[in-house]
Amino acid sequence: xxxxxxxxxxxxxxxxxxxxxxxxxxxxxxxxxxxxxxxxxxxxxxxxxxxxxxxxxxxxxxxxxxxxxxxxxxxxxxxxxxxxxxxxxxxxxxxxxxxxxxxxxxxxxxxxxxxxxxxxxxxxxxxxxxxxxxxxxxxxxxxxxxxxxxxxxxxxxxxxxxxxxxxxxxxxxxxxxxxxxxxxxxxxxxxxxxx
Length: 195
What we know:
- There is one protein chain.
- By secondary structure, this protein is mainly β.
- It folds into two domains: about 5-80, Thiol Ester Dehydrase, Chain A (Roll); about 100-195, Thiol Ester Dehydrase, Chain A (Roll), CATH 3.10.129.10.
- Helix content is about 10%, strand content about 45%.
- The chain has helices at about 125-135, 135-140; strands at about 5-15, 25-30, 40-45, 55-65, 70, 105-110, 145-150, 160-170, 175-180, 185-195.
- The mean pLDDT is about 95.
């Protein structure tokens, strides 16, 4: 509040080595990296009780000025001591170029009350729910997710809607795009491996 700043999630990639069990306790180890070109990287490892890695997540965060609604390229001085100089690991985050006409339109999704965060926008986690719900049941019945990539382009304010599109790609992949007001609000890519 003093600096009128907030971190927002710009994109993330998740690699799943194996699905955790519902009752399983995991240990998370996170490594935040200092700001480079206006972005803070954070790598999070998920370990099981034996110390084996279950999943890895690479998330990219940007600091915004909450009053001017713009990304800050230089952080306030008091933020400088919180980050590692370099975290060498990163996961692939490149999304394929898929034209809207190559996608199937699945209808609209709305930033309803239960889907929004305290800032009045569709919560980042809800995008993942939406795209996972849009994967055909037969895929979930015969495969498990191995990689999930999402890139947030524009926020979806509460009460607003976007058009959800899906394209089935080669190699057990599904591409998603959420379009609002003629522009992409987000894109996502889910990769599955057969059971």
